[in-house]
């Protein structure tokens, strides 16, 4: 097991990379096997949930990604003792000695993640106060936290905005509330869950997000002693309890990483077995993958994805909340769509500015035009607000080498696979961001036969 201090030192930094630039020699198919472990979008929240327990928790399948290290660093500042077995991915969290932390230390560790905002409920329950630093996460739009703050006020928290973060108090404790979210936000739904489980009385949440990662967080909270029911039509009801205990839980797999490797197989005309992936959480992705011309085969221990030969077909996609097409799936798939015979459309309805990554693809020879209009039948909050949130991709276009810079996590993965599909030598810089959500992606690319050099 690694020691606590190893990880404290690494908290807030991107892991696993000696350098931030990779030179790719494209044109080879990616073939082979990669394993995906726990979902970034569940594991980091489960770690926060451990704060609510009176006894230690064990989380399994935790990936070595920088977002996990950021959350680990923050938990350790609050006195949670954490040990990790890197090989198995087991993470032991002991919250017996949670204490107040210095604002300066918290700020120094906030790093690149959006998770600090989810510490509010657990810290208010345990300590009666919380300080939350400015958030990281991908810059793919404004990403306000107004729903979170409103939710916390509904529970009775006193919220004060400071120049470098937010301070909260709940001197009289937190009380269950009736809440309707303006949009089924994943983070705000988690905020309600993590706060309501220990609040006094009942909470009813309407217009909740119901992503698989949220369902798995509910599984964890139930193991801890919470009482939560999920009704039809996005209604979640929580009965607050006086105490929660630690949990033992094997995390849901990372369906976003799995979908990325699936797209990598399609883009490079390869064949990739994604160990650990399972069908139900990827149903919507699999339908689109098949319509675009990709082949897949579901196994007990993973899913095989490959390019079956012949032309790829254009598709029309509208990203949406679950069970719709996940917004984190579109970027790598767009690279494949540059190779489809005809015109594809992607209407991004979750984030207003998530097509920044397409500039680099156009530089490499793709033909992607962005539009402010909603190119789709679905209601979208961005149509009247002047955002380039619809993409028209005309293909097939040959991709050629270029020097490109990673703008964000999923855009970054799409750049890697575009460089691997392009003729010639491409230099991709700022690749460290990719470690936020893709465990050991450099070793995995090596395993799959990619030809590249990491700069020392
Ligand atoms: C760590 C994590 O789990 N990240 C995921 C999570 O992000 P995250 O939880 O940040 O995403 P949300 O579901 O909250 O955001 C969805 C939309 O709601 C808006 N919004 C959200 C909160 C708020 O207070 N006010 C507001 O306006 C956002 O700007 C965005 O337009 O869900 C997203 C949507 O599935 C995924 O892309 C991210 O990978
Ligand atoms: C947008 C993402 O993550 P985050 O919310 O952590 O920035 C993502 O995983 O693609």
Structure write-up:
- The N terminus is likely disordered.
- With 456 residues, the chain is α+β, with helices and mostly antiparallel strands.
- Bound molecules: uridine-diphosphate-N-acetylglucosamine (UD1) and phosphoenolpyruvate.
- Phosphoenolpyruvate (PEP) binds next to helix 13.
Q: What is the SS-derived class?
A: alpha+beta
CATH architecture label name of the largest domain: Alpha-beta prism
Give the biggest sheet: 4 strands, mixed
Name the CATH superfamily assignment of the largest domain: Enolpyruvate transferase domain
Uncertain regions: pLDDT < 50 for 5+ in a row? Answer: 1-16
Q: Count of DSSP helices?
A: 14
Bound molecules: uridine-diphosphate-N-acetylglucosamine, phosphoenolpyruvate
Q: Give the tally of structural domains.
A: 2
Q: What is the CA-CA span between the terminal residues?
A: 28 Å
Q: Can you give the helix content as a percent range?
A: 25-40%
Arithmetic mean pLDDT: 93
Strand order of the largest sheet: 21-22-1-23
Tertiary shape: globular
Domain Enolpyruvate transferase: 25-445
Pathway: Cell wall biogenesis; peptidoglycan biosynthesis
EC number: 2.5.1.7
Main location: cytoplasm
Provide a quick synopsis of the model.
The protein is α+β, with helices and mostly antiparallel strands and 456 residues long.
List the helices and strands and how they pair.
Blueprint: H1 4-10, E1 21-25, E2 31-35, H2 40-49, E3 57-60, H3 66-77, E4 81-85, E5 90-94, H4 103-109, H5 120-127, E6 129-133, H6 146-154, E7 158-162, E8 165-169, E9 178-180, H7 186-196, E10 202-206, H8 212-224, E11 227-231, E12 235-239, E13 248-250, H9 255-267, E14 271-275, H10 283-291, E15 295-299, E16 302-306, E17 316-318, H11 330-337, E18 342-347, H12 358-363, E19 367-371, E20 390-395, E21 403-405, H13 409-421, E22 425-429, H14 441-447, E23 452-454
Parallel strand pairs: 2-14, 3-13, 9-10, 17-18, 21-22
Antiparallel strand pairs: 1-22, 1-23, 3-5, 4-5, 6-8, 7-8, 10-12, 11-12, 14-16, 15-16, 18-20, 19-20
Helix pairs in contact: 1-3, 2-3, 2-8, 5-7, 6-7, 7-8, 9-11, 9-13, 11-13
The structure holds uridine-diphosphate-N-acetylglucosamine (UD1) and phosphoenolpyruvate.
Phosphoenolpyruvate is lined by residues 114, 137-138, 256, 328, 409-410, 437.
